[in-house]
Design goal:
361 residues, alpha/beta, TIM Barrel, Sulfite Reductase Hemoprotein, domain 1, 8-stranded parallel beta sheet, 5-stranded mixed beta sheet, 12 helices, 15 strands, 41% helix, elongated
């Protein structure tokens, strides 16, 4: 699919925009002042496949903790700050790789100038983040409620404050929990500016509901070529956001990391417990390290049509009555008892991982 070509910014060693791969972000929910707990969560996010992490900086103590966190983080660190320009300056001094701050909310112009000056010195990008839940009352009145036009105007006001200071290392987000609103706002912003867009459905909810909202919202934009970086926002442990983000990108062919599981919905021909078998395979696959070369695994219920239906899978199994087939790229390589199917498939996958270990993160 054709993606909109945006400007590029660098968050540490990660490049965003300009046709580069869509970058996966998340945000810690630890107390940033607890350095070790925060680093443990960042390490878990990195292991899952996260590429950039954002931290809340609520006070000076949290800001001072950033120095040790940044020094030991396996991911580029963005400081999330609201209203207080002094915390932004402190975070920059501690070595963060990016800021999330709205310049229109930090007061007088000289405060904006101070932040811009510090960002220029270290070439630190600023993400302007408009959230539907905190849109300015003036804009709510102007547009008679919450509208995409109001969200875009809010973002443009912040953008112009930075541009007036000669600064253009900018990313933009226009998040809302309402998916149609979020989609309309991002589409309008994409037509208006060439800055890279950070996309997501904010406050999407728990894993059960949030995954659906995020897949629809984020996936729709990506399918239209909109979006340079994303976050799937789910309630709870942020590590659970990463597999969802990877899956959205993988389904759209935008990233090929990890494993894609193909399994049939079952029908009257199915004579094995396919649901249980597929769940066991998925569980094992979830523990594999991320792979740069994509891997497709198929679990099919029909030994007659299974291999053909999953011809593009690297490996697969197809169940029959008390037996099944092990196949590679649609070609049958073994006939096995039902009990042997899962171990044989996992052995093939383990050998694949060992062979391509140099391509793992």
């Amino acid at each position: 699919m054709e993606r909109k070509l945006t400007k590029t910014v660098k968050i540490g060693w990660v490049t965003i925009g300009g046709g580069h791969p869509v970058v996966i972000q998340s945000m810690t929910n630890t107390d940033t002042r607890d350095v070790q707990a925060t680093l443990r969560q960042i390490e878990a996010l990195a292991k899952a496949g996260c590429e950039v992490v954002r931290l809340a900086v609520l006070d000076r103590e949290a800001g001072q903790a950033l120095k040790e966190i940044v020094a030991n983080s396996p991911l580029p660190v963005i400081a999330d700050i609201h209203f207080d320009y002094r915390l932004a300056l402190l975070a920059i001094e501690q070595g963060v790789h990016g800021l999330r701050i709205n310049p229109g909310n930090i007061g007088a112009r000289w405060k904006v100038q101070e932040v811009v000056r510090a960002c220029k010195e270290r070439e630190i990008p600023i993400r302007i983040g408009v959230n539907a839940g905190s849109l300015e009352k003036e804009l709510l009145d102007k547009y008679q409620g919450l509208t995409p036009e109001g969200m875009v105007e809010s973002a443009l006001r912040h953008i112009h404050l930075l541009e007036n200071e000669g600064y253009d290392k900018i990313k933009i987000s226009l998040k809302a929990s309402n998916v149609p609103l979020m989609l309309a706002a991002y589409r309008k912003m994409s037509e208006t500016v060439d800055y890279p867009l950070h996309i997501g459905v904010t406050e999407a909810g728990t894993v059960r509901s949030g995954v659906i909202k995020s897949a629809v919202g984020i996936g729709s934009l990506l399918a239209e070529g909109i979006g340079d970086t994303l976050r799937v926002s789910l309630t709870g442990d942020p590590v659970q956001e990463i597999p969802v983000a990877l899956e959205i990108l993988k389904v759209l062919g935008l990233r090929n990391r990890g494993v894609e599981l193909i399994s049939c919905p079952t029908c009257g021909r199915t004579q094995v417990n396919l649901a249980e078998l597929a769940e066991k395979v998925e569980d094992k696959l979830s523990n594999l390290p991320p792979l740069e070369r994509p891997l497709k695994v198929a679990v099919m219920g029909c030994a007659v049509n299974g291999p053909g239906e999953a011809r593009e899978a690297d490996f697969g199994i197809a169940g029959g009555k008390g037996m099944g087939l092990l196949f590679k790229k649609g070609e049958i390589v073994a006939r096995l008892s039902e009990e042997e199917l899962l171990p044989a498939l996992l052995t093939e996958i383990e050998n694949y991982v060992k062979e391509h270990g140099k391509e793992q993160h």
